[in-house]
Every structure is written in structure tokens, then in C-alpha cells.
Amino acid sequence: MGIGNWVSFGSRRVVGSSLAALCIASVACGKKGPPLPPIVHIPSAVEKVEARRRGDEVTVTVTVPSKNIDGTMPVDVARIEVYGFTGTTPPPASRFLELGIQVGTITVPERKPDAPPDTAPPPDTPVPGGTATIIESLTTETLVAKPIPPAPTTKKAAPLPVTTSPGTAADTGPLRRFYFALPFSPRGRPGPPGMIAELRLTTLPPAPTELRATNLPDAVRLEWEPSGGLIGFLLERALAPELSPLDDPVPDVVPAASTTPAPLQGPTRYNVYRELAPLEDKTTTASQPASPVEPALVNGVPIDTLTFTDPLTGLDGRQRCYVVRALRGDGPQSVEGMPSDPVCVVPMDDFPPDAPSRPSITSEEGSITLTWEPNAEPDIAGYLVLRGEAGDATLTPVTDTVVTETRFTDRTVKPGVKYVYAVQAIDSRLPRPNVSAESERVEETAR
After folding, report:
1. 192 lies in the same domain as 324
2. Distance between CA 92 and CA 90 in Å, rounded?
3. Residue 63's domain is classified under what CATH number?
4. Which tens digit of pLDDT belongs to each residue from 175-209?
5. Which pTM does this prediction carry?
6. Are residues 169 and 310 in the same domain?
7. Which residues contact 57 (CB under 8 A, 6 or more apart)?
8. Domain tally for the chain?
9. What is the 3-state secondary structure (H, E, C) of 274-319?
């Protein structure tokens, strides 16, 4: 018997089919055990929720989970449901879906496994670890406080006393709108509860009035009347009344539950929004209109004056529409009111450049040379050189073309004749350029 046909197993020798039979009976020979349950990934909690109010709309921004509850990646998240509740205290996270109303759903697209790692998702697409937003339009119903009933009890007695939520709408404090976000896996399994964001519901500041726009050479200047009119402007800046030393101090009173928005606090400031008309696209057809452009905030920080200047980086013939909103409060609790009536302008370059400065003149045999300082405007296309004879009230161009340098030599002069020169700057506006006033006139007699 060859050595390849037998093996020693303890004190026995097993050959051929006997070895196979032994392997079938032994788990050590590779027999599979019972099937393992499939791995189920559940997304981790939404760690950040922020709410900002602008007029009758609230923008809710959430952070998309970046990993699963067990720390594995990529995260298995298909959607995030956002719920809202109005009251003076929030319901427990475990009852938010029961007591709140769903205000929106954020869909997180699944990344294909075969997609290149450097493939960027389309703009505004929710991605793990990034942010996503929904907008809720506030209604009369959403501005009314709701009660928090006691938690339902079961027939089975609990081994220990359980504290339940109060059975009234909240007890004290200002009226607020609470937001809660819950992630779900592609199989519909919810993740753990996360943070609850809150937004104080206050009365809105009145919209500014009489918004006006003025074209400047390199900007659009906006002016408006204050929120609340002149009376509101004066009352806001009035000094607080002084207490008389004879007055008794007012005892502290615990505020009752609020069912109406609280009055605004703090000074009024302003935000300016600009909407640019889309650039003309010759490939866009009537059946495929251009995508709308959302108004953009153009001031870096809130404005505490009644004017704003929007610089122009270039003129492309597009219409610019502006609105102004009054702002109260700071940070996430700030509230913007309704927009002013819009004002629209199409900035045009109707402003001539400055006249060239410091012209000087020299004469040589058969020619006169004129030089001047260059203009500082960025859109200068060139200069016009004007000439006349002594005593002429009006000067005429020496050449039919624009001079692009700041030096010109006139070789068409006649000896003994006294000439008068001036220079005008011309910009690049089309179809008709703007021309400056004449520079200072200089005279020289040709040789």
C-alpha cells in the first residue's frame, strides 16, 4: 500500500473510503455549521439639527450620519425624516413621532459600489457627513401650542415607579417650535434618536419700505425706510424709563404657559438679498427653460444702517432684483421678517471716464509730440487726440482711430503755425462708448 493511500489516526490506520466516512462524521474536516444571520447595519443618530426662521418659512438643516451605530462605514442610510412640534417644552424623543407632525423627508441617494472614488455627487445632494436642508412653511396650525398627554400605560405592572410626561401642554416658558430628525436604513430600520432643535416663535419685524436703487459707476446703492416706520425707529432707540426710588420692586413672577408668539427683543438690523437673472443660454429651448436662481444674501454681516452698496464686478446686461428683510436676535435664534417690495435694476455703464491729466507738449522739426498720464479706470479702450489752431473754440480729432498709448506724435503740422491740443479718454462700452471731457489744453508752435 502506498503512503498516499493511508493515514495514521491515533492507533488506527484509515484508508480510502474509510477516511472519507470519518471526515463526514467529524466537524474538524470542514463541515459547515448553521447559517449565520445577515449583518444588519443601522445608521447612527443625527448629531446636529439647526432651525432658522425667515418670514413664514423655517429652514431646517441636519447633518447626515457618516457611520452606522456599530462604527462601520459606509453608512447605510436611505432617508431622514424630520418632525416638528409646537409648545413650550419638547416631547420626549421616544414620543416625538407620536406627538409631532412630519414636515419633510431628506432622501440620501445610495452610492454605487463601482463608482470611481473621485466621482463628485451633483450639487446639493445629501452625502454622509454633509448637511441637508428642508424648508417648512409655517401655518396658523403650526403656531399653536399642543399638549403633551401622559404616556400610555400597559396592563403589566412595572417593577419600579416610572415617571411620565406631564399631561398638559407645557408648563412655562416661551412658545417654541421643536424639530427632531430620525435616520432610516434602506430596509426601513430607524436609527437611534438624536438631538432636538428649538426655535423661539416671536412676532416678525415689519418689512422695510420704500426700497430704492441707484446706479453708480461701479456699484448699486440701496436705501430704504426703517422697519416699523419712523415711529418704530424712534421707539426702538428711546431710553429705558428710570425707576423712581419710591417705587417698590416688582416681585419675581413665574410666567404662565405661553400660547402666542413672544415680542421681539434686541435692535433691528437688516439683510439684503439679490436675485440675478440667468445668463442667456442659446441652447435653452422653450420646453427647457433656464433653472431659477435663488436670491442670495449679499451682506456678510447684518446691517445696522438704512443703506447698502453692492459692488459690481462686471456688467453682463443681467437684471438685478433686491429685497431687504429686517432681522432681530443673534445666532440661530435670530428671526427675519417678510421681505420688502423688490426693486430691480439693469446696471448700465452710463458714466464717462475722467478726463486725462497732466498733458505736456514738445516740438521738433516737422512734428509735435503730446504725452499725458494714463487713466485709472479698468475699462479704458484708448484716447482721442484733439487739435485746433490758436483761437479755435472747438478742437477736432487728429486721427480716425483711438490711440491706445499715452503718447502721440503729430507729423501733419505746418511750420510757423500755433496749434492747440487736448485729449479725451474713451471706454469700452458697446455699442456706443462713453467719452470723457477734454483734458487741459496745451499750445505749441510747429517748427
Report:
1. no
2. 6
3. 2.60.40.10
4. 999 999 999 999 999 999 999 999 988 888 999 99
5. 0.64
6. no
7. 135, 136, 137, 138
8. 4
9. EEECCCCCCCCCCCCCCCCCCCEECCCCCECCCEEEEECCCCCCCC
